[in-house]
Write a structure and sequence with these properties.
Blueprint lengths: L2 H8 L3 E6 L6 H7 L4 E5 L7 H10 L6 E6 L4 H9 L4 E4 L5 H9 L22 H7 L1 E6 L2 H5 L1 H5 L6 E4 L1 H7 L11 H16 L3 E5 L3 H10 L3 E6 H18 L13
Parallel strand pairs: 1-2, 1-8, 2-3, 3-4, 4-5, 5-6, 6-7, 7-8
Keywords: Lyase, Metal-binding
GO molecular function: aldehyde-lyase activity; metal ion binding
Family: Belongs to the HpcH/HpaI aldolase family.
Length: about 260
């Protein structure tokens, strides 16, 4: 099994960080902090699949699972990030069973799919059955059209899970971005996605953005919860350090402090 599959098998909830830029230390810091996985964003982030391949290679011996979000079910970039060692792909803006099936096919070799053979790391081996088994595929439901096709999407064979995008879902449903966590209709849609996907035997994932929201989502039953991006974590930590300095407070016992 992959690291991501191992983490899910060991715990009801797993916690993730998110990387949107070409950082070297960000993923390792998430691992050091105890996160279970890190996601690399090729949809909205300043990354392409070549950047991701280098980051994945650096994490080969770091104890953290990996996922890559891609903007479509185009099989070429999906194959490249899997060949580079990603544990999972997360395909954005899926609105039909046909799109979900195309995402699954991109992770499978012939005759079941359209993935081309070409692992980029020797450690991945050459066993196509094992390579397929270790490649998890999630599709994002984040629009009203995707929500309407929820049952059909969840029935697609070979799908690992559903990953929910709360911001786009709220916008697509005609609400403000700030309503993503508070509007009853959006919350009901989130609960429907979680319940339907779980009933179909799928893993449910979601973006949270804060630990407090992450706790609420865990209580709702979501299993794969992304808490923050590296930029969010940096901003929060930087603000806390500045607040401590300007308020004249001290860092007890030099907590996490060092000079270099």
């Amino acid at each position: 099994m992959s690291r991501l599959q191992d983490a899910l098998a060991a715990s009801d909830q797993i916690w993730g960080g998110w990387v949107v830029g070409p950082t070297i230390i960000g993923p390792e810091e998430f691992a050091q902090a105890g996160y279970d996985y890190v996601g690399f964003d090729v949809q909205h982030g300043y990354l392409d699949d070549a950047d991701v391949a280098l980051l994945l290679r650096r994490l080969e011996h770091v104890p953290i699972a990996t996922a890559v979000r891609l903007p479509s079910a185009d099989p070429a970039p999906i194959g490249r990030v899997l060949d580079a060692g990603a544990d999972a792909v997360i395909i954005a803006m899926v609105e039909s069973a046909e799109q979900a099936a195309a995402a699954v096919a991109a992770t499978r070799y012939a005759p079941a799919g359209v993935r081309s053979f070409g692992p980029l790391r020797a450690s991945l081996g050459h066993d196509t059955v094992a390579l397929e088994a270790e490649a998890s595929v999630y599709v994002m439901i984040e629009t009203a059209r995707g929500l309407a096709a929820l049952d059909e999407i969840c029935a697609v064979p070979g799908l690992t899970g559903i990953y929910l995008g709360p911001a786009d879902l709220a916008i697509s449903m005609g609400h403000r971005l700030s309503d993503a966590w508070t509007h009853p209709d959006v919350r009901a849609a989130m609960a429907e996605i979680q319940d339907t996907a779980a009933a179909a035997g799928l893993v449910t994932g979601i973006h949270a953005g804060t630990g407090q929201i992450g706790k609420t989502l865990a209580d709702m039953g979501f299993r794969m919860i992304t808490l923050a991006s590296e930029s969010q974590a940096l901003r929060r930590g930087a603000a806390a350090h500045l607040s401590e300095a300007t308020a004249g407070t001290t860092d007890p016992a030099g907590q996490d402090g060092y000079l270099q």
